[in-house]
Amino acid sequence: MPLAPSLFDLQINGYAGVDFQNPDLSQADLRRGVDALRAGQTHRILLTLITDEMDALARKFAQIEKYRAADPVLAETVCGYHLEGPFLSPEEGYRGAHPGECMRAPDRAAFQRLQEAAGGNIRLLTVAPEWPGSPEFIAALVAQKVVLSLGHTNASEAQIDEAIRAGATMITHLGNGTPVTLPRHNNVIQRLLARDELTACLIPDGAHLPPFTVRNFFRAKPPGKVLFTTDAMAAAGAAPGRYRIGRLEVESRDGFVRAPGSANLAGSCLAPAQGVANAAKWIGIPEAEARALFSTGVAAHFGISLPEIEIPGK
């Protein structure tokens, strides 16, 4: 069988029926989710924890670190963390499925507490830069080699400018974490898309972004300024049905994951390998190029090594 780079997903909230947000997550369950990812060609992830109370987040990080220390496969696969919240916009629509009551202004001491619980392995942080003190916060974390991404935000052009000057380099799931209805032209999607300095992360599942939007966003960014991710949660790699992502019970159906009765998406049920195939087809690029943006491109952005693996059926 031919060799190809392992996939590397920078935003995995859960997989194969396992909710990584669960405060009672067991080592066996985490290993089950990781084994399913590895069976699907994904050997590196940034395990993503979403907005919660600070005490709860610290406990989750500390618990997962114990599991990583006890299991070399977990340590290798979960090569770091993506913290998506609580430094996000509390505004309805922009907060998405995140609990608004937990949102807070950026706080270096609070982040450092979480980083210590995570063994120094928080590698990616999503923030809304409209909070007061954001530029100073971003600069301090960039100095610690944390990658800063803008998301769940309604930042103005000036606030985006300040965030970029401070060292922000990415956009979390561009086109999502926004209200369903926005002004036609002057909206945060357009403001972020226009910034060539920022690498846009896209979710090629047909639910977060229609195929034509994936194609348009890809074309709008300079070469090397797009990466792919799934934003997968427990329903990914599992049958349709009811699942949890943190505090929320959600329903996976017809390729969408939503809280019942809500228009807000709550992660995806997309498998990374299917994301590669979707991106190649929808954008019209070779599958090897799409794969690079879901593997070696991600690894390079974070300075993490990536193995080559055998690809069945190629």
TrEMBL record:
<dbReference type="GO" id="GO:0008448">
    <property type="term" value="F:N-acetylglucosamine-6-phosphate deacetylase activity"/>
</dbReference>
<protein>
    <submittedName>
        <fullName>N-acetylglucosamine-6-phosphate deacetylase</fullName>
        <ecNumber>3.5.1.25</ecNumber>
    </submittedName>
</protein>
<keyword id="KW-0378">Hydrolase</keyword>
<comment type="similarity">
    <text>Belongs to the metallo-dependent hydrolases superfamily. NagA family.</text>
</comment>
<dbReference type="InterPro" id="IPR032466">
    <property type="entry name" value="Metal_Hydrolase"/>
</dbReference>
<dbReference type="GO" id="GO:0006046">
    <property type="term" value="P:N-acetylglucosamine catabolic process"/>
</dbReference>
